[in-house]
Amino acid sequence: MGQPAAKQGDTITALDIHIIMIPSPGGPVPTPLPHPFNGIINANLSSDVMVMGMPAATVGSTADNMPPHIPQGGPFQIPPRNKGQIITGSTTVFINGKQAARNGDTALTCNDPVDLPVGTVVAVGTVMIGG
Length: 131
Description:
Blueprint: E1 3-4, E2 11-22, E3 29-43, E4 50-51, E5 54-55, E6 62-65, E7 83-86, E8 94-95, E9 98-99, E10 106-109, E11 116-122, E12 128-129
Antiparallel strand pairs: 1-12, 2-3, 2-11, 3-6, 4-5, 6-7, 7-10, 8-9, 10-11
């Protein structure tokens, strides 16, 4: 059975790790802390294939984290990009030559020191895509 097709307005969720510079008497201490990522899929979408009236998402579609990450207890060592990008999709269904994105597919999200494939596409709807 297929999974719901991803489209504009669906989300990418993750728990990102960012390094916060926690103040201390000996100077700031770089401390990795979790930050929830909840990005709305909104860019690099199909221009001519619609899913429930919205542009279809594919491998390469991106999301902006909303609200952006907020530093906890000190400044970020490196300011987060607050972006996610879908990196896996259907192996049998293609949209404009790219793998169609579905509920449960993997996304890269902003992490320190590099983006990591810890995001998950969360798509809802009645259009199902297999493979």
